[in-house]
Amino acid sequence: MTSEYVIEMNHIRKEFPGIVANDDITLQLKKGEIHALLGENGAGKSTLMSVLFGLYQPEAGTIKKDGVEVKINNPNDATALGIGMVHQHFKLIEVFTVLDNIILGAETTKMGFLQKKEARRKVIELSEKYGLKVDVDAKVEDITVGMQQRVEILKMLYRDNDILIFDEPTAVLTPQEIDELMEIMRGFAKEGKSILFITHKLNEIMAVSDRVTVLRKGKYIGTVNTKDTNKQELSNMMVGRPVQLEINKDDADPADVVLNVEGLTVPSKIHKNDAVKDVSFNVRKGEIVCIAGIDGNGQTELIHGLTGLEKATAGKIEICGQDVSRASIRKRSQAGMSHIPEDRHKHGLVLGFTLEQNLVLQKYMEPQFQNHGFIKFDEVRKYADKLIEDYDVRSGQGPVTVARSMSGGNQQKAIIARELDRDEPLIVAVQPTRGLDVGAIEHIHKQLIEERDKGKAILLVSLELDEVLGLSDRILVLYEGEIVGELDPKKTNPQELGLYMSGALRKGKEAEQC
Amino acid sequence: MLRLDPETGKQKWYTTDGAKSVLSAIISILIGMAVGMIIIVIVGLTKDNISAKGIWEGVRLVFLGVFSTGRESGALTFGFNPVNMGNMLFRATPLIMTGLSVAVAFKTGLFNIGAAGQYLMGTMGTLTVGLTLGNTDCPVLIAWIAAFLTGVILGGFWGAIPGIFKAYLNINEVITCIMTNWIAANLVTWWFDAHDIFKNSAEGGKVGYIIPLKNVGVVTPKMGTDVLFPGSQANGGIWIACIIAVAMLILLNKTTFGYELKACGSNRHAAKYAGINDKKNIILSMVISGALAAGGASLYYLSGNTEFFWSTYMSLPSEGFNGIPVALLAANNPVAVIFTGIFMSMLNVAGMQLKYLTAYNEYIADIIIAVIVYLSAFSMFIKQLLNGREKKKGGNK
């Protein structure tokens, strides 16, 4: 008996103590289709895929491959059934070459000796066939994230997998790399391979998938044909209430200058040149200024130089008229700057600390929370409870939850709660919605606009074009460490912005060769 | 994964982190003792002069050494032995201090393997000042405080060196600590070699040693230990160590300073982001750590009876390294360090009892300590196992 579906997961139920991660979920994958699995953070997408990949055993439900019931006890069983997975966080050995990583675990040997020649030929053949450009002899640590992902994909192809799972593959890619990946995925589908594509980005679903299955809070909501639906409907299904995709805001009414930066120059840690070259701009009360640009054009260094995480070699920084060019991080922050950092695990949170300890990270030394160096634990708890309530930070055990155990979205909410509640005139928000789902993004956008309307000056760094165009009142484009253009979001469009971002256009100059 | 009590909705006490730490420490200790027992049996079986009865005596002494009261008509007797008890506390004093030293550094994310060198610097400072002031009209109390503080300050300074290298040049503290250990060993040897006045030439055959501080009267008061444990070496040092341990617990858990130290230890980048001076905190943590290790030496030598073999350039004091298992077994909790420190010295006392009362020698106790040292690193792993077991149980429910 042949089945219409290559993989059927019927009525899957998976429990963890205190939570039902998957509750009666059914997923059917047709041969040669790109099937998107959509859901907010914590909706149970990853759990479901882990069940399929043999990492978890379901409490109830069956899995069928080509209509035959199978039992997948571990990833080896999954591989034997032709199921391959590209994890969100790559599973590569950094000091090994690309080739070694691809053959690892599936080495061809002769009398115990590796037969790399054969493997090498096969890898190169595959990479040419699917347009997956990789340098087989480069070490993984030396190649870009995009290429690392191609290595992961080649790993699946090398094992002759024909059911490919992509777990949030685009989270780490630049817009160009995303386009390339979409093209590659379409190629696979044409070949007859079946693809499961986990994501919460609606644009990508509309662009590449054939069908979409939506999960919400561990429950199956429905499966729809992509061509019969639209972004609004999908996001409503995902969040469970009408979501506002467009960002609505009044025109800005900028007043006094809050942040003034002149000639800021920050050295690079990677190369000898400066990462930020002689950058000048200002941010006024009541406006959102967005620094746009492709990742790696000096955004991180600019913010680090501004906040004091790295030393700037030249330039002047004034916050509310106070010169903080040489001041310590704490002085700058006390001069009136809160900072939602780019990397919430590295800078934003002390993951080993509890939620309440993290919520007072910027305030523990204030008289409200300490008396002669002794922390007032009651006050900390009261304050934490208030922030958790006001900003709807959800966690297992409230204020005493260890930050590490919280979901990414709630970790970000905690950071935003902490920084916004400081009520400083300047808010520096670096990729505040990275890796978050639609509901959370909507919420954060609203909060930022509210703060702006309260008269805060907001400096936003974003890599998402939608966010840049929708949220900002003024756009500064950063290209190779220089501001190459200042645009009005109402008068520009993604194409023009893209040209500036790629360095093809420059302020006051005709288009250069690109 | 957390398991909640279905009735109260609260976390069950035995699933808390603290309970797991205690449990894993106890498991490590029991495995260590079991291995020691096996060794006693094997040694006993291979030696002609140890009978089955001798083996049984050895096993009992390993576990109950501190309670041994000698022999009566050929059989071992057990009961409250004030001398053993007191000596156990006396020997625990430096271990508690070096244990605190390692624990505080761990909390800040640093591995202070340099406690041995800091301990030697403390020895040098305390003995030098104690002997010098003890020979003047200086009041004993002032001399005691000066001797103690000099040792502590020298140790703090010695700890600062790896701290500075770590903070400003990002050189791994383990490497600099090992180097400062040996620099200290040579420096101390040179110092006492160059100053004959500190050498014990009065008592024949003791030229290799420094004059004990009791000869000049600068000693720690007994503070009641002579009443509780008559005839033992115990002195007020153990109380001082306990007070310092409690002070460290308060410092780490109740103060903004402790919050900063732990933030730096847990995530240096986030601490820096929050405006905490990470460099300052790394150095301060090593200073405190060094001062604690040196304080252990100061208290040990200020007991008065202890003699220091000054030509130490070939060896490092074991107290410095034994601080590591003491801290690990205590899961870096300063108050728990008091108990693990006492436990380690209990094994030591048990070893002495083995030597005096049976045909075994005291090195059996050292083997047990070595196994526990080994397993103390293992206690983390045992804790993980405990966590893992629960996860699995939860998953299959």
Question: Could you explain how this protein is built, in words?
Answer:
The complex is a heterodimer of chains A (514) and B (397). Chain A has 514 residues and is an alpha/beta fold. In chain A, the strands form 6 sheets. Chain A has a 6-stranded mixed sheet, sandwiched between helices. A 6-stranded mixed sheet of chain A has the order 18-21-22-15-23-24, with helices on both faces. In chain A, β13 (257-267) and β14 (274-284) form a beta hairpin. In chain A, α13 crosses α14 (408-421). Chain A is globular, with a radius of gyration of 25 Å. Mean pLDDT of chain A is 87; it is low at 510-514. Chain B has a two-stranded antiparallel ribbon with strand order 1-2. Chain B has a domain at 86-344: Orthogonal Bundle (ABC transporter involved in vitamin B12 uptake, BtuC), CATH 1.10.3470. Chain B is globular. In chain B, a hairpin with a 2-residue loop joins β1 and β2 (75-78). By secondary structure, chain B is mainly α. Chain B contains 14 helices and 2 strands. The longest helix of chain B has 34 residues, at 363-396. Chain A binds chain B through residues 15-18, 56-57, 307, 309, 328-331, 333-334, 339, 341, 346-353, 357, 361-362, 364-365, 370, 373-375, 396-397, and chain B through 1-4, 11, 254-257, 259, 262-263, 266-267, 269-277, 394-395, 397.
